[in-house]
Amino acid sequence: MEARAETRERIAGALVLTVLALASVAWWIGVPLLTLWGLGHATEDGTTHFAGGLIGVPLAMALTAPVLIWLNGLYLQVTGALARAAADEQESGWRRQLGGPLEPIMFASLMVALVALSICFLSSAESSPTSIL
Fold first, then answer.
1. Mean pLDDT of the region 34-58
2. Where does the pLDDT of residue 50 fall: very low under 50, low under 70, confident under 90, or very high at 90 and above?
3. Taking the CB of residue 23, how many other CB atoms lie within 10 A of it?
4. Do 109 and 25 contact (CB within 8 A), yes or no?
5. Which member of 26, 29, 47, 126 has the lowest number of beta carbons within 10 Å of its beta carbon?
């Protein structure tokens, strides 16, 4: 019975981890793109679009970040890490801070986003840079 519960924890943890990884990449790429796309349809002036993007993209990212934090907490709960930490706290009397997988996933997804941005930029360039000399 205990092996079955552990298997369920691992499957659920892998599912939440996959959703967290996809949501992290979407946070770096999708949220800014959707915000800029929406601003493009809402404004006609380039200056207004630029200023709106400077304010709107960080605001949209800040508003959607709690979803990532919630997924991180869900992962800790589903895998039993929170229950184990609570049991350790009762035994030892000191509280341990749990980080979860969010930080390394955010760093890896940032690298994926930067590589994707670089590929997109380099593949859409119409001419190569020329030297000044």
1. 94
2. very high
3. 18
4. yes
5. 126
**pLDDT at residue 132, rounded to an integer:** 54
User: 111: how many CB neighbours lie within 10 A of its CB?
Assistant: 11
Residue 28 pLDDT class (50, 70, 90 cuts): very high
Using the predicted structure, report yes or no on whether residue 4 has a pLDDT greater than 60: yes
DSSP result, the chain: -HHHHHHHHHHHHHHHHHHHHHHHHHHHTHHHHHHHHHHHHH---HHHHHHHHHHHHHHHHHHHHHHHHHHHHHHHHHTTHHHHHHHHHHHHS-PPPP--SHHHHHHHHHHHHHHHHHHHHHHH-SS------
Amino acid identity, position 73 = G
| Structure tokens given for 38 | 């929406």
